[in-house]
Amino acid sequence: MCLEQCTDCFARWKLWIRPIFIILYGLAALVFIPLFLVKSLKDGFNRHDQEILIGGIFVWVAIPLSCWEIIQHIIHYAQPKLQKHVIRILWMVPIYAVNAWLGLIYPKQSVYVDSVRECYEAFVIYNFMKFLLNYLNMEMDLEASLELKPQVKHIFPLCCLPDWEMGREFVHICKHGILQYTVVRPLTTAISFLCKTFDVYGDGQFKANVAFPYLTAVNNLSQFIAMYCLVMFYKASLAELKPMRPLPKFLCIKAVVFFSFFQGVLIQLAVYFDLIKPSPDTPDDGPSLSTRLQNFLICIEMCLAAIAHHYSFSYEQYLTPGSPTPRQSCCSAFLAMWDVSDVRTDIREHLGIVGSSISRRIRGRSMYSVPRGDDEYANLVSPRSATSVPTPGYYQTDCDELVVNYGTVSASQPVGVHDNKFNAKT
Predict the structure, then answer these.
(1) Is the pLDDT of residue 156 over 50?
(2) 395 and 384 in contact (C-beta within 8 Å)?
(3) Which residue, of 46, 260, 309, 396, has the greatest Cβ tally within 10 A?
(4) Which of 104, 100, 94, 99 has its CA nearest to residue 36?
């Protein structure tokens, strides 16, 4: 009898997990804060301790907000093709917050701690791009839809660049422009590790004999390209993305990832040129001061980002009235978000296409001369199963078991419009 009651209690874990989570979190705060205050008062409670306490309060508020939203997505895992990437994006706040707080506590080791944040920000951009592509490919044939649209012009200050041909070329340039940051950012982080080991990194120093300014310039350029491609893709697909309220999501990604990066660069420049100076009671050197300021601001900003994510990436958007219970269990949903095989596949294909495009340019051929329907690089935009039998107007993916509307032509639509444009391209 007792065993049955325990089994029944665990089966209803969704009912009691929230109050248990709140109670345990409150007890941890009640234990940690007094211990920290006692230790700080013994040491004189200097400015550094004040930063740790204030930053910790914001972090301890941000983490439960984000974790609760992640748990809700796992419980209501109704659309795996979309929610898998949303969950990965939501993990950004806990990772950034904990990383920044640890950087406040251990400022001298921040170059190692911050590497996790730097690599994950590239991972977040990749997942947001995949989220947009999956959403659009669930509703239409993205490439065919873009081919019928007017040309999207470049944004200032890149107005002089040649237009990206709408359709296959536009999607590929946008996707690979974003993917390059997923490759470049971890690579520059690894190089910074090596430079730190050999004492040639020069954190916060804009000098010619250290690696810091060169790595910062590469990261800035790579991130600018990724951001520009994301803006161009958003601009071209604004009408199709409108049902899922893209603007708050786009602003959350842009504010957290791009703003925090450029914020750090500006702080380092201000400290280097003595626009920001350390206080007399904490005579830090320049790099330590800039790192502390950046981490302190991120602790506060992550609390605001957690609130913004709660409204922008809410699980309720993926639930429809009368929809069936999610087919995957919570455990399967939790494990699915850690499966990074899609990242590995896309990066491998990205490197393959970059190499192939360079070879085509050398031979004087266009990078996008492959006709639609060819299997070359087909998985990059709309992965299709080679073994499945397509039904008229639909196709079946090989990874998420989602039937996707691949576009149909109504009786009132002139058939020759799309065919003529298609034949002209091929």
Answers:
(1) yes
(2) yes
(3) 309
(4) 104
Q: Which helix (H) or strand (E) holds 405?
A: strand 403-405
Q: At residue 221, does pLDDT exceed 50?
A: yes
> What is the model's pTM?
0.73
- Give the pLDDT mean for 158-175: 86
Residues 151-166 as b or e (16 or more Cβ within 10 Å = b): ebeeeeeeeeeeebeb
- What count of other Cβ atoms lies within 10 Å of the Cβ of residue 109? 11
Q: Are 60 and 67 in contact (CB under 8 A)?
A: no
Amino acid 321: pLDDT: 60
Token look-up 């071209």 returns: 236
Helix (H) or strand (E) holding 101: helix 92-105
| Closest of 128, 144, 47 to residue 90, by C-alpha | 128
Q: How many residues does the chain have?
A: 426
Cα 206 to Cα 223: distance, rounded to the nearest angstrom: 19
CA-to-CA distance for 104 and 82, rounded, in angstroms?
A: 35
